[in-house]
Structures are given as structure tokens and as C-alpha cells.
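Below is one protein, fold included:
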Amino acid sequence: MPQAELVQAWREAADSAGLTEEKRRQLVAEAQGRLAVQAGQESPNVFGRELLADQAVAQGAAMLGERNSVFATTSLHEAAGRFALGTVSQTEIAEAITRAETAGELERRTYLDYRSATFEGMTTAANIANEMTLLRLEEEGRHKAAPIFSPLEAGKAVAQAEQRSALKGRAWNEEQRAATAQILTSNHQIVGLQGYAGTAKTSTVLVTVAKNAEAQGYRVTALAPTASAAQVLGDALDSRADTFARVKLQGNRIETISLESARDRHLSHAYVSTAFAAQGRTADRVFANAESSATHLLEQKSFYVALSRAKAESVLYTDDRSKMQIGLHERSGMSATALHGCGADMQDGKQKAREKAQAFSLAL
């Protein structure tokens, strides 16, 4: 889609959500006003502003690095600007990026987009360390696993899967056949599958491998960085789904976080509060947690209170979107009084009291 159409679509979506052009200009003016006030101070805290810029760049790089090994430098400027919320300028962000490069936290790379166009890009020291670890694990795991199938059995499984797809009007190509057969016959502990988006990697290769592995007694778990991505992958494979973070926590490992270290600089202190205690308060950003195991604590009123506290951004975290939606649908949050539901009993008691008093007066 051309950029002009994307921009127009974004503006229409923003207008429909209440973020009109006037409101957008107002937000820009407010941000520029804050910068002007800071620039006009007699003794600006230069060191403090550098720390803010460094933290914004670290947060932006950590966010982009979760999804992409290499990301565009312009994307880092944009992400850091969102995290900074107008407290530092783009010039200061550029200087912070340079400092991060000097410190070895960022390294320049060539970013290749989906059109194969090249741009100036960046990667993080954490991404480099992760890739080196993955390569080491892949090398150590070579020829240390039993193949799921023999070549003959793999060919038969691929042919059967291809026939099932043909009944649904979907045809396989030679690369999909080869990739599926290679994974089913591999004796390596780690196997990588790479392909462009929309090439049916999941619906052809991974589904076939998962179903045949389960038939051979393997336990298949779909893992992804986020709960929503894990759920989508799990649904596609019809298997158990989980996030990397949850699996990592299940290992009972204890890690110490230091906000002074380069690895953890993208983290910052935040206040934790219940939705009830947050009523009447606001914050620049709100991160709301809604676990499926505690849906009895989530209802429409507290849901609205939690997400409406934010001035700039609200993010909702849940491990089961469907359970959360069901819980919100069932619970309005309008609590009944202690006497709610006792009205009939009270009326009945009053009636009996009147009858008893009347009978007593007649006896007299």
C-alpha cells in the first residue's frame, strides 16, 4: 500500500477514535511547549537530560529488539521519542544513540525491509549475545537427536498432508515439501525454518511436523514472545502454547536486575497499584495486568478505571484473551449492597410483625 494511503488510513482511524487533527496539533504544541520551558531554564540539568535520553534509547532499542534482530535507525529515533514523551529533543536522542554505540550497547547494521530495500540500521548487544548463544546451542545439538521419521516415512507423511491441503484448495510447493521432509528426518536438536510472511510456513510445514511428532509420542508446545502470538501459533498447530518468559520463570531461576547495568537500563521504576486505589489518579503510561486465573478480580468498572488512568498510553497484559473477554462480559462491576436480595425476606418480616402486633392489640 502506498505511504499516502497508509497516512490517510491512519488519520481516519485516529479521527474515529477521537484523536482529531486539532487534538494531534495540540499534543505537538504541548510537547514543544515543555521543551521550550526546559530550554529556557537558567540552569538546565544537562546530566539529567542525558540520562533521560539514554534511558529512552535503551527502552526503544529493547522494544524493537524483541521482534527484530536488526531494526531501522529511524525506527529507533521514533520509539525513543515515544518513550521520552517530549522530555528530550531528537537531537539529544541522536546524541544518546551515539553514546550507546560508543559504549557497545548498539552496533550499526544494514536494515533490509520486506521490499529488499536497504536502510541504515541498528542491533543491540543483547541481540548479538542471544544469537551467539543460539548458534552455540545449535552446534552443540547437531547429530544428538533421533529423527522423527525415516526418509520413506517422511515422504509418506508429506504426501498425505499435501492431499489433505488439496481437498481444501491449497497446493504445496517444492520448498514446503523439502522443508517438511528435512525437519521430520533431521537428527539435530535445533532446526531453523525461515521464510517470508504469508508463505504458509505454519499451515503447511509446522502443522505437519507437529501432528506427526505428537503421533510419535512427542509433546509439542508453541512458544512465542507474547501471549497473543503464542495463542495464535498454538491454535494453528492445535497444541499447547506458552510464552518464552513464562517458560523461563518456570525454571526457578533468580536473576538480579541492576538499573545501572547496560543490560537493564531500559527498565525504570514504576508504581504498582490496584484499580480501586488508582481511582482519581493519572499517569503517563499504564500497564494493566489481567491474569486468567484471577478473572473474579476483573470486571467492567475496574477495567475502565485501570485503562483510563493513562495520559499517553495504556497497555493490557493477559495470558488468556478469551477468558478475559468472558469475564468482562459477565461482570459489570456494579456491586450489590449487603441487603441486596434480602428485600423479599424483609418485607415478609415486616408483614409478620404487623400481623403479630395487630393480633396482640386484639387480645388486649
